[in-house]
Design goal:
This protein is mainly beta. It contains two helices and eight strands, in the order E-H-E-E-E-E-H-E-E-E. The chain has an eight-stranded antiparallel β-sheet with strand order 1-2-3-4-5-6-7-8, with no helix packed on it. Helix 1 runs parallel beside helix 2. The protein starts with a strand and ends with a strand.
Amino acid sequence: MTFVNHANMGDYRTAIDNFLARLTPIPDITAHPLQTTVKYGFGVNFEQPLNNWFGVFGRWGWNEGRHESYAYTEVDQTNEIGVGASGRRWGRKFDRAGLVFVSNGISRDHQQYLALGGLGFLLGDGRLTYGRENIVETYYTMHVWRGFYPAVGFQYVDHPGYNRDRGPVVAPTLRLHLEF
């Protein structure tokens, strides 16, 4: 898959340069004239069943990391690998279980912008000791009745927000998938 966004987005390097030239009191990705810029990226996904109840999957994604993030999350590179199982093996054919490892990163300009005190739409507290954000997640989705699928999970996040000075964070999760 690929994407191309055309929007009024700031440039991390310009925001850093303006701050270093003392044109702004902090790096400010929004301090720019109205302009249309382009952010693009790529992604690859694979899913490989190994038998009738167990398989592996993975994803890789990258975007140019030069222009500001404004939707979904602040990630410029991602790698993911996991395993998934069908409840068929234990007599619950619509249940699903899985374990996944994800490693997310941001570009050097994005890192420097945050380290100098810049704010993204989700990240930024004035300090950044960069480290890739690494996540281990496990989940179990059960089929309770017709289109009702609750799921329980657990996430362990090392270096949340790409900061080695933060975390780790442990997050239990609860999700609900409904089909009508």
